[in-house]
Q: What sequence folds into this?
């Protein structure tokens, strides 16, 4: 990913900027605690982008800074090509967001809450209330008071609140919170359909599995810093390869493999071995392992490459970061 | 969650054109923002019930009880309405409670988005935070101004339509609306109560007995009424003609006082009082709104406003502290009290009554211009503070 200079760009010029979100050196402190630490984030347009990190990593703080809910201490940022906070109103005109858990006026109905928000947007937003409620599947409860809504329904209402602005960019902070498995599935489908319409969805979450299923690209944040970002496929290509080998005499098999130069980390895990190979290891190495074992009179019952998951990759990246510090 | 396809408008609509048309960066709130904010406040059932109870319910129940008591026991209980009831209710109830309910509504409007988590949704719309703040002012006033007006109208209606049929002047039933000549003629026809009960500054000689055994304050020895400054002595036994002439003289002197005594408040006084009560409510709402926004919570703000109105302002209205006179003048409650229409009682208790000017005369001296400037300063100052906090607050 490359960066684009936007500091001097006018809104109209920068509208065609390729990045939906772009930050440079963005920093936000709370006293001595640096919640967002020089973040360089580039979110391409028209994709689902995961913003991953453990609890307390600074995910929500970054979102709040981007949306102007709190100010940044330093750095620059733009949304949809509009520098913010300079062109904040123009930028947010096409942004919808859920930050933290979606909370609304409990004494109003879902529809009335959306009317309140639509009034603060452009006049056309009022006409989108019905379709937005229908799309998130709560039209039949639209005239019930929000205080009677479940957490999942509030999440859906939060998404509807985003949609009434016809956003090009949606920022969803932990949108799966409070949803049952069916609701999570529906939310995932909806995010994908939004992306299919050409919108950009930034999904902040600690649910790696959900992000992996939904997003095209991710950024990993830890302790306020982005430590990796890019398309998931590219990131996982750089992950270690794990082989599961079911064999006889696993201790002798381990000794045989350690005597070679394949450079693997080998653990005995009944009924065989767990072999972790460095990133970029080719298929010939797998064949070499099999050959060594067979020539050593070890019976190989199964040899399987375990697909690296985002979760395992995330854990390995964050644990390496923790170890290095 | 049914996938019903894309929204009516395409995702990649021309954002800059839309953005420039809706003017969401403008600090001026739209009619839609005001209307929906009004709806949000109006739908707060508990708050609305409390506001209605205090602004309309309390005076209405009070007057209803008086109406019933008078209907069932007219000799024991006087009419429900009348001038005295009007001044007492306006200065003693509507003024203070109107301010408090307006301040409560203001504190609610200023803080509730924040405490209920709606503020960040509104900020994310890109709408100017100043516009979000300013939209609350007309929305809140659209609630509190009619409420105060309705409560006041109830008081006016009862005080006018259930007023006494005879004027009670100095404890004497006198026909209302008499001209000077008519008042003097009536006095000539009723010399006894006039001489005995009407105030008079001068010597009086009459042979009318006043009061029972022991007499009244003006009763002299031997049935001769002596009224006048100490040391005045009268030895002449007056004729009936002299007595009537004496009553006419007393009536002539008391006419200006009588002319300011009414069965019920005049239309002019009611209009001026209504405007004054609305001013007090507007001040309460605007200050409460700013305070609520500044604090970010309702309860503390409401408590502070109640303390200001019920404790601090009455104390500062009664105590003239030489070194703190300017501070006393700067209290908005006292400034509004200075604008009290003449003819009402003292707003912070202690009665008052007809005669005009008795309420404000107890306050720290202050010109009307200064009072107006102080009120404007409070309105502008709290609006600026509240808006500033909303614009700089983390959402």
A:
């Amino acid at each position: 990913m490359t960066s684009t200079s936007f500091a001097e760009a006018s809104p109209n010029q920068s509208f065609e900027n390729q990045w939906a979100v772009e930050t440079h050196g963005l920093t936000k402190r709370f006293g001595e605690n640096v919640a967002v630490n020089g973040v360089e984030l580039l979110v391409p347009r028209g994709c689902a982008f995961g913003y991953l990190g453990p609890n307390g990593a600074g995910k929500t703080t970054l979102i709040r800074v981007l949306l102007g809910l709190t100010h940044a201490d330093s750095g620059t940022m733009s949304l949809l090509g509009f520098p913010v906070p300079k062109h904040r109103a123009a930028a947010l005109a096409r942004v919808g967001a859920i930050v933290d858990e979606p909370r609304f006026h409990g004494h109003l109905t879902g529809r009335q809450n959306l009317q309140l928000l639509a009034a603060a947007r452009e006049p056309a937003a009022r006409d989108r209330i019905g379709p937005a409620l229908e799309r998130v599947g709560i039209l039949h409860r639209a005239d019930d008071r929000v205080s009677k809504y479940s957490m999942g329904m509030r999440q859906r209402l939060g998404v509807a609140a985003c949609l009434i602005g016809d956003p090009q960019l949606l920022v969803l902070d932990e949108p799966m919170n409070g949803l049952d498995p069916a609701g999570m599935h529906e939310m995932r489908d909806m995010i994908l359909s939004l992306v299919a319409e050409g919108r950009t969805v930034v999904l902040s979450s600690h649910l790696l599995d959900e992000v992996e299923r939904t997003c095209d690209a991710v950024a990993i944040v830890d302790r306020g810093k982005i430590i990796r970002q890019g398309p998931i496929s590219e990131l996982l290509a750089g992950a270690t390869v794990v082989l599961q080998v079911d064999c006889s005499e696993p201790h002798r098999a381990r000794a045989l493999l350690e005597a070679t130069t394949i450079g693997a980390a080998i653990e005995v895990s009944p009924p065989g071995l767990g072999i972790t190979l460095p990133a970029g290891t080719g298929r010939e190495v797998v064949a070499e392992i099999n050959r060594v074992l067979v020539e050593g009179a070890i019976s190989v019952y199964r040899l399987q490459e375990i697909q690296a998951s985002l979760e395992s990759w995330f854990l390995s990246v964050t644990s390496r970061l923790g170890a290095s510090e | 969650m049914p996938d019903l396809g894309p929204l009516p408008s395409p995702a990649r609509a021309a954002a800059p054109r839309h953005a420039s048309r809706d003017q969401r960066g403008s600090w001026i709130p739209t009619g839609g923002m005001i209307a929906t904010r009004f709806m949000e406040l109006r739908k707060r059932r508990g708050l609305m019930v409390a506001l209605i109870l205090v602004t309309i319910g309390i005076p209405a129940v009070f007057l209803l009880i008086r109406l019933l008591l008078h209907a069932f026991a007219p000799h024991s209980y006087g009419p429900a309405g009348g001038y005295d009831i009007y001044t007492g209710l306006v200065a003693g109830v509507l003024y203070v409670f109107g301010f408090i309910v307006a301040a409560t509504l203001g504190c609610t409007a200023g803080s509730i988005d924040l405490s209920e988590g709606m503020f960040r949704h509104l900020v994310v719309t890109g709408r100017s935070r100043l516009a979000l703040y300013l939209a609350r002012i007309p929305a809140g006033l659209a609630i509190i101004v009619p409420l105060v007006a309705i409560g006041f109208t109830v008081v006016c209606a009862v005080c006018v339509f259930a007023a006494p049929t005879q004027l009670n002047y100095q404890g004497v039933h006198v026909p209302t609306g008499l001209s000077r000549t008519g008042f003097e003629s009536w006095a000539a026809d009723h010399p006894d109560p006039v001489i005995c009960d009407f105030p008079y500054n001068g010597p009086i000689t009459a042979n009318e007995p006043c009061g029972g055994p022991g007499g009244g304050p003006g009763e002299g020895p031997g049935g001769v009424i002596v009224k006048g400054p100490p040391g005045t002595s009268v030895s002449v036994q007056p004729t009936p003609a002299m007595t009537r002439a004496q009553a006419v003289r007393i009536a002539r002197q008391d006419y200006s006082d009588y002319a300011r005594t009414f069965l019920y408040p005049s239309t002019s006084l009611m209009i001026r009082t209504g405007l004054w009560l609305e001013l007090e409510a507007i001040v309460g709402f605007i200050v409460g709104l700013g305070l609520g926004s500044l604090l970010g919570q309702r309860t503390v703000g409401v408590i502070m406003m109640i303390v200001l109105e019920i404790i601090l302002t009455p104390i500062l209205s009664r105590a003239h502290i030489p070194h703190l006179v300017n501070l006393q003048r700067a209290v908005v409650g006292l400034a509004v009290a200075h604008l009290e229409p003449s003819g009402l009682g003292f707003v912070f208790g202690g009665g008052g009554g007809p005669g005009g000017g008795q309420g404000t005369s107890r306050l720290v001296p202050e010109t009307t211009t200064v009072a107006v400037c102080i009120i404007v300063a409070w309105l502008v100052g709290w609006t600026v503070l509240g808006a500033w906090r909303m614009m700089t607050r983390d959402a």
About this structure: The two ends of chain B are 30 Å apart (CA to CA). The first strand of chain B starts at residue 167 and ends at 169. Residues 1-20, 212-225, 350-357 of chain B have pLDDT under 50 and may be disordered.
